[in-house]
Amino acid sequence: MVTWAAQLSKRKIVAVWALIFLAGSLAGGLAGWSARERSKAQLMDQARRTASAINGDELRALTGTRADLANAAYARLKERLGWLKTVSPAARLLSVLRVVPATRNVIFVADSEPPGSGALHPGDDYGDALRLPALQQVISTNQAAAQGPSSDASGAWALGFAPVIDAAAPPDAAVRDILDLDVSANDWNRQVWADGFPCALYAWIILGLPFGVLLVMRGFEEQRKALRNLLGAIEQSQSAVMIVDLESCIEYANASLCAQIGYSRRELLGRPWRDFQQPETPAELLADMVATVRAGNSWRGEWFNRRRTGELYPARGAISPVKKRDGSIACFVAVFEDMTEFKKGEAVLRAALSRAEAGDRAKSQFLATMSHEVRTPLNGIIGFTSLLLEMPLTPEQDEYIQIIRTNGEALIQLTGDILDFAHIESGSLKLDLRPCSPRSCVEETLDLLAVHAAGKKVELLHWVDDNVPAAIMADDARLRQVLVNLTGNAVKFTEAGEVEVTVRAAKGPATGDSAEWLLTFSVRDTGIGIAPSDQEKLFKPFNQVDVSTTRRHGGTGLGLAISKNLVQLMGGTISVESGSGRGSVFTFTLPAASSPAPEHPTPHIAGLRIALAARPGPFRVEFARLARRWQAQLVEVDAASDLAAGGWDVGFVEASAELARSLAADSGVRAAAAEPGGLRELDRRVPWPVDKTFAIVPLSLPREMRLVLRSYFRQVINKPLHHDAMHDLLAGARPPAIAEERPARFELRVLVAEDNVVNQRLVQKLLWNLGCTSTVTENGLAVLAELAHGSENYDLVLMDLHMPELDGLTAIEKIRAGEAGVHAKGLWIAALTADARNEQKERVMAAGGNDYVVKPIKLGELADALRRYLASRKG
Question: Are 221 and 239 in contact, with CB atoms under 8 Å apart?
């Protein structure tokens, strides 16, 4: 039965209780009905006895009309009814009724009320006869009947009817007179409850008590089962479980605790827990443990336990108080684990981490060393090849040196990509946010790739929307690196056609005083395209579309992976749209805050008449688009000879090598230019006015051809065009930065610290080309000695970082500390190193360096470094 009760759900339990209640209620109802039927039988018997006490002869003397009021028999009948009422204490009213045979109506004959107090008179119709089933039953069966109880204002009452027997009437004669006995039924209801409720109660007890006992037993069984499971779980737990009393004596220990310590449960019970702890347990630990659990809180931590053998082992766990209902503490429960194996594993992991960190440091050092060791000889190779290209060479020599320089620059790009990827992979790459111009980043990127693109006859175009901010807060070097990677790939995989870089801007939510922008950079090419199935490979490191592409175009497959990581580091996204044979569009978006740009007047050239002589194509379309932006009037012709018609203010000619060679064939050009009035003579030799016509040439055009073109044009301008500089050129606002200029001469005194002999000669030659004088030292100690004897003789120091005896970083720190003399403490120091790591640059700046120039150094980059020095001196 207990098992059956255990299977009952809550819904079934409620249903059983409902059945028990219904059964008890049914039993009580049957008992009450039986009691009411007994009362009705008693009422019928009393009505028959009372009817037998009435004389039938007297009733025959009554006519059942008002005339009976004067009949002596009527008076005697009333007297008898009154006496019978007195004999029956429960009787409320006795009445004699008569059935009229002809109509079977019931009329009133007499009642037990005193004369003159009745509401009915002899002969009155008994109106309730049809609504009294017991009366109708007597009329029909000639047998006594009863009904009720009913209630009215005077209380509960019941009716008993019995026929008055007339001895003179035949036995089968229809009933003529009927006795109506009205009695009080208040005791009936009490009797019904007195008989029904105990019966229902007995049924409820008989049925409910066993079921309740079953439920209680089920609860006990569930508790026993839960306790058994709990004890089993504790006993079989891999963690040691111990219960101690308020005196810290062990009351319970599970099997795991016995196995840990090496004692049996019998040996542990009753012993103080401290007997199994490390004797030298720190007092602070014990005090914290005791104070925490005594305050009613759980304590977690580590400690040492002692095994039976005396061996100490580390344990980690929690101690919690067990509270009574009144909140007082009854005992404490400790749950802990043996941490021996964990500590061993932790030691192994710590050793592995130490080895991994050492390996990471070794990798970083290796990359730094490789970067330095590779860039140092490349500095000499590229530097001296650049100097060779400035000398008169045969076409074959020029070609060979160009190949040397191109491959050297490719090797530099390769080492830079590997170093950047290592920084990204280790998470050490950081952004250097500062104001930068998106337009300048795009134009400088195209300048870097112009020679390669011109060699393949690929047109480089760009367009920056008018709403793009002039300056944003960004890492311009990393932004330019992404643009170089994407645009370089576009040029590499485009055999003919064009590569266009566009920049769009959308206004974002305002934060503080700066408006946020979402800049979208797109690089579109007309190259070989990429199949959709191959596009998922693009942004994975060391991965290209296929092996044949790798053999044909080269590369490591790191450029796009680095670009994706850089864009994500700057908070943007990158994507590609392409298809086989229909070119590609690489797009990346960057959120950026605008930065205040230096204000300078922007002259208007609206209405200026510009003539452009260029072959139909994308460059001509871009130039026309620029003219519309500037609201200038553009005259487009296909050949330079068409400029003779005039009618324009300034002209541009897309000059090619063929044009330069045809002009060079005019042997008298130089003599004409040298004579008085030579400019007019040149104007007669060409169909355009020399003083207001500019030549636009590819950056790859040889130097001797440029010299020829300079004689026939006001200036020679390189492609791709710089839009803002072109606008200023047309407006005459400032000298055009895009036009070729003679090398600057700085007239500075420079101390060079460099241990490599080749690089010493290269830096000295570059400084000489820039109009500077230089002194070379081979290490940091020599720099300190030279500055100590004459620091006032130098304007700045170019400091290599990797030198024998004393490295450049330490030398900078010593100079700033005054070890080279007071005058040298504020000297401008530019690090000149092959280590391109950002962290190395940060170390240099932290040590007191002013600038950081990465080898291999080029003439233009060295000139930029000297300009930064002059700008700081003016500041």
Answer: no
User: Nearest-CA neighbor of 518 among 509, 528, 529?
Assistant: 509
Structure tokens at 397: 């020599």
Average pLDDT taken over every residue of the chain: 81
Q: What is the pLDDT of residues 536-545, one digit of tens each?
A: 777 776 555 5
Map 15-69 to HEC letters.
HHHHHHHHHHHHHHHHHHHHHHHHHHHHHHHHHHHHHHCCCHHHHHCCCCCHHHH
User: Which of 679, 669, 635 is closest to 653 using CA atoms?
Assistant: 635
Dihedrals φ, ψ of 474, to 5°?
-160, 170
Q: Which residues, at least 6 apart from 212, have a Cβ–Cβ distance to it below 8 Å?
A: none
Beta pairing class for 650-654 and 91-99:
unpaired
Rg (CA), the chain: 59
pLDDT tens digits, one per residue of 715-761: 888 888 888 888 888 887 444 444 444 456 889 999 999 988 888 88
pTM over 0.85: no
Q: Structure tokens of 723?
A: 């839009």
Q: Are 677 and 635 within 8 A, CB to CB?
A: no
Asked if pLDDT for residue 677 goes beyond 60, the answer is no
Q: What's the CATH fold of domain 237-338?
A: Beta-Lactamase (3.30.450)
Using CA atoms of 424, 429, 431, 436 in order, give the dihedral in degrees to the nearest 10: -70
DSSP symbols for 521-567: EEEEE-SS---GGGGGGTTSTT--S-HHHHHHH---S-HHHHHHHHH
Q: What is the mean pLDDT of residues 461-470?
A: 92
Q: Would you call 616 helix, strand, or coil by DSSP?
A: coil
Q: What is the pLDDT of residue 230?
A: 74
Separation of alpha carbons 609 and 613, rounded Å: 13
Residue 656: its H or E element? none
Residues ≥6 apart with Cβ < 8 Å to 69: 121, 122
pLDDT confidence of residue 833: 84
- Residue 313's DSSP bridge partners are 305
Say which DSSP state 507 is in: E
Q: Six-digit token pair at 475?
A: 């890492």
Amino acid type, 763: V
The residue-averaged pLDDT of 207-229 equals 77
Q: How far apart are CA 112 and CA 77, in angstroms?
A: 9
Place domain 749-874 in its CATH homologous superfamily.
Answer: Response regulator (3.40.50.2300)
| CATH code 2.40.37.10 for 609-731 | no
Q: What is the pLDDT of residues 57-83, one digit of tens each?
A: 778 888 888 888 888 888 888 888 888
pLDDT of 699 higher than 50:
yes
Q: How far apart are CA 429 and CA 367, in angstroms?
A: 14
Nearest to 834 by CA among 799, 875, 794: 799
**Phi and psi at residue 66, to the nearest 5°:** -70, -15
* Residue among 650, 658, 632, 653 nearest 642 (CA): 653
DSSP states of 214-234: HHHHHHHHHHHHHHHHHHHHH
Does residue 576 register a pLDDT over 70? yes
**Percent share of the chain, pLDDT over 90:** 16
Contact 580, 706 (CB under 8 A): no
Sequence spans of domains, the chain:
11-192, 237-338, 430-593, 609-731, 749-874
Spelled out in words, what is the top-level CATH class assigned to the domain 430-593? alpha beta
Q: How confident is the model at residue 850 (pLDDT cuts 50, 70, 90)?
A: very high
**CATH number of this structure's domain 11-192, picked from the four choices 3.40.50.360, 3.30.390.10, 3.30.450.20, 3.40.30.10:** 3.30.450.20
The pair of structure tokens assigned to 90 is 């429960």
Asked if the model's pLDDT at residue 356 lies above 50, the reply is yes
Residue 633 neighbours by CB distance under 10 Å: 15
